[in-house]
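Q: Hi! Curious about what Dynein, axonemal, intermediate chain 2b looks like structurally. Here's the sequence.
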Amino acid sequence: ADPMEIFHVYQKRRGDFGRQCLFSDRQAELLVDILPEPSLGLHFMEKTPRDRALQVGWDTSGHHLNTACFQSVSCGINHIEGGWPRDINPQDMEQTIRFRKKVEKDESYISSVLHLYSPVEYYTRQNNTVNIYQDYFEDEEEVEGSQETPSAKTINVFRDPNDVKRTVSCLSWHPDGNQKLAAAYSCLQFQRTSTVMCLDSYIWDIENPNGPELTLKPASALVCLDYNPKDSHTLLGGCYNGQITYWDTRRGSQPVETSALEQSHRDPVYKIIWLQSKTGTDAFSASTDGQVLWWDIRKLSEPTERLVLDLSKKGNQDEALGAVSLEFEPTIPTKFMVGTEQGLIISGNRKAKTQTEKIVCTFEGHYGPVYALQRNPFFPKNFLTVGDWVTRIWSEDIKESSIMSTKYQTSRLMDACWSPVRPSVFFTVKMDGVLDVWDILFKQNDPTLSVKVCDEALYSLRVQDNGRFLVCGSQQGVATLLDMSSGLTTLQRNEKSLVSAMFERETKREKILEARQREIRLKERSRSQQSREEETVQDDSKENHDQLIARAEREFFSAVEADIRTTDQARTFLELETSLDG
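A: Let's find out. The predicted structure is below.
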């Protein structure tokens, strides 16, 4: 309604109002002035003064609202090699030369270079005028970030929404932004899978634990999965029945394509990893059937390559070792590593021409399956393995033994991984529900931090690319997201050089010990060979002594027989002469 609208009307005669008041301006006038009388003050009683506050107004209450905080982070860029497309590997000389030739043939290349020459020259001269890299606080000591006590706090918990709980067998972070998490759910206990057990796996938003963002519906339960680092919309999963399944999240929950059953693995696929390639469509998988298969997701009808893990190099799958873990480092595209059920780590060469040349060497690592295998992101020559009750750190130069190892734990270790931001830190999970954080620069015998994540066994582990968030998967389908303290996620001063020196020192020590062991073995071998030769000589000397006695006896008896014959002949001659004389 109009605010000026009149709702009530009052009517009254002018005469009923009384005499009209007329006001005018005039000077001030004092009418009464009452002076104080001190004598009257004797009749008053003084009271103790009291303060009293009165609040005339509306009753209000205070409310607090916690809004989403915006966390700002200072970032820097270390530009080493740039300007290349994502499908070009700057380390590959042939690719870079081919790309340069292609760009230089472009008509707009020369005009673009000439157009950019003037502003580039201007800014170059401007940079040369002032030293922008001058350090004004050279003499001041840096404050170490590691003074803070290492800690980890639980941020969110993601639970399997089904009634029949399954193990979180594998985890994978979304490559862009790390705000999403893919989890594979399966029952790894043989012949305990229920007919009513759900086969779905899920993609979670880490800020919304109430329900999954997307449901993945495979034909068989997923044992492992991995996001494509070049395309954040695609995932590849390994199933319990041995098949490989490929998803594009833009197309929904159903898989885009699944490998043919007769061309797939015969056992569950325990690990699958994307490979560094131009197309970004290559991957390889491992299974306990003793095979490593290479795939191209554009054609999943059959694998592009096969490798049977037969150490006799005959390709006999009945004698092959079952694979449970894989490792591939994009900076070393020709090498890969496989962890087996028998505790061996197999180092392979993908570029080898024949099957026998693909298996390069083996490392005797553990007494049980090698559940985790990962190279150090800062020093790829060194890698981490987990099996039975111990964690070991290896060097590719030492085949006989590891260069470092933890003490044996009271509970079995199931997974481990390096920190992507600190070369000396790695994480392990155990079957007693404990997450251990190790810092080998701080101490090697005990973990720096141990966190009781849950009461059930932990089976899987994955760290975010920035090293801050870590997620653990349990046997009862619970994925727990933890936030690491800044001391565990900040690279310390001289940490790389210290870790490199530690690895080199331990490698050198193991080489000395290995050489000493070889020397001892050679001495024992030569000593045993010498003892055998002495025994042979003794046997020969014993045989020669017997032969000499036998020969002497033969010669003696032959001489005696000769004397007897000579004596007989002489006696016969004498008898003949005597008869003639007579």
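A: A fun detail: The mean pLDDT is 85.
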